[in-house]
What we know:
Radius of gyration of chain A: 14 Å
Number of strands of chain B: 11
Oligomer: heterodimer
Largest sheet of chain B: 7 strands, mixed
Strand content of chain A: over 45%
Largest interface: A-B, 24 and 29 residues
Structural class of chain B: mainly beta
Order of helices and strands of chain A: EEEEEEEEEEE
Shape of chain A: globular
Largest sheet of chain A: 6 strands, mixed
Helix content of chain A: under 10%
Amino acid sequence: GENVEQHPSTLSVQEGDSAVIxxxxxxxxxxxxxxxxxxxxxxxxxIIDIRSNVGEKKDQRIAVTLNKTAKHFSLHITETxxxxxxxxxxxxxxFGATGANNLFFGTGTRLTVIP
Amino acid sequence: xxxxxxxxxxxxxxTGEKVFLECVQDMDHExxxxxxxxxxxxxxxxxxxxxxxxxxxxxxxxxYSVSREKKExxxxxxxxxxxxxxxxxxxxxxxxxxEQFFGPGTRLTVL
Lengths: 115, 111
């Protein structure tokens, strides 16, 4: 099955700086890569996703890049704010391989934005 | 707005008890999932279902079973709870090709 590795496990940045979280995956059939944000005590929520026919996607201060050849994808957060502090999870799935889009998650990155 | 609800936020059970965790979604989603979340291990898939009465094992199905008798409801069953099943359990649902929406989670403690 798919194996997703995520780094770093913890990340501290000054408010206003950028944060980058990286993930690698093992299954070349994976074609959907979502990122979830989980604030303390709350449920994970999708913040951005990318499909394998796209190399980069941006939504305001958040961007995701995908390198299919190298099998890695990254989350970039610019101009970080204290409310960006949370645990971020990357995931991958080979859509269409089964009847459901079961996601394979990374182990998470705890981001702390220091005011 | 998609709503995924779980029967309990906190649950305390004793070793050997049978435990039922229920998840209900109101968006007519085909797919439903059960994960457990442990510090440093991320979200690990226990079981998933892509249709009524259909179920598939995830990465860590041992010690668990599931039931999906109705499209909107997906139950996780711990036949004989053990202390190593103390964890946060998250349910999720999705359409065939879209994002997964998570429930609020159930923090289960097995004494």
